[in-house]
């Protein structure tokens, strides 16, 4: 079996779907978590492929970019979709998440950058809320058509993991009310109730994102 080492900050963030894939598949890996502010990231940044994390090391072979890593692992472990058509839809849904996250990230940057309340409210009302409405509408449409409760096909894929994790982050930020989005709430519950994930989810460190 290959030796896997996943390096990312000590938060859920963009590496969490990949961590979940390891636990879902029952595949051991080194969960290398970098602490903010202790200088470790600054020392190692230039040695990473793109100067970013996460990075997955597989027997010395490095793979950068969060969704490239998740897709690689999903294909390895059988969670990328069962047919080429399913795989295309899994990728499309993950791309939809990336489109939304690019918009939502503006709010995170503004909050962490100490922007004024007025500026944060402007970003929320003019960028994040419209993007969230489009995003949720697309996801609900998919779930309405696919009666399995998952996003694609009749089994869990890495798209379900990506979306469930994002819904948790949105809930933490006050942008996801489960009572108003029952289909999305049911998806999140279905994903997090997977037997192979329960032990990890019960013990993992809480983080807003």
From TrEMBL:
<dbReference type="InterPro" id="IPR036282">
    <property type="entry name" value="Glutathione-S-Trfase_C_sf"/>
</dbReference>
<feature type="domain" description="GST N-terminal">
    <location>
        <begin position="2"/>
        <end position="81"/>
    </location>
</feature>
<dbReference type="InterPro" id="IPR050213">
    <property type="entry name" value="GST_superfamily"/>
</dbReference>
<dbReference type="InterPro" id="IPR004046">
    <property type="entry name" value="GST_C"/>
</dbReference>
<protein>
    <recommendedName>
        <fullName>glutathione transferase</fullName>
        <ecNumber>2.5.1.18</ecNumber>
    </recommendedName>
</protein>
<dbReference type="Pfam" id="PF02798">
    <property type="entry name" value="GST_N"/>
</dbReference>
<keyword id="KW-0808">Transferase</keyword>
<dbReference type="InterPro" id="IPR004045">
    <property type="entry name" value="Glutathione_S-Trfase_N"/>
</dbReference>
<dbReference type="InterPro" id="IPR036249">
    <property type="entry name" value="Thioredoxin-like_sf"/>
</dbReference>
<dbReference type="GO" id="GO:0006749">
    <property type="term" value="P:glutathione metabolic process"/>
</dbReference>
<comment type="similarity">
    <text>Belongs to the GST superfamily. Sigma family.</text>
</comment>
<feature type="domain" description="GST C-terminal">
    <location>
        <begin position="83"/>
        <end position="209"/>
    </location>
</feature>
<dbReference type="Pfam" id="PF14497">
    <property type="entry name" value="GST_C_3"/>
</dbReference>
<dbReference type="GO" id="GO:0005737">
    <property type="term" value="C:cytoplasm"/>
</dbReference>
<dbReference type="InterPro" id="IPR010987">
    <property type="entry name" value="Glutathione-S-Trfase_C-like"/>
</dbReference>
<dbReference type="GO" id="GO:0004364">
    <property type="term" value="F:glutathione transferase activity"/>
</dbReference>
<dbReference type="InterPro" id="IPR040079">
    <property type="entry name" value="Glutathione_S-Trfase"/>
</dbReference>
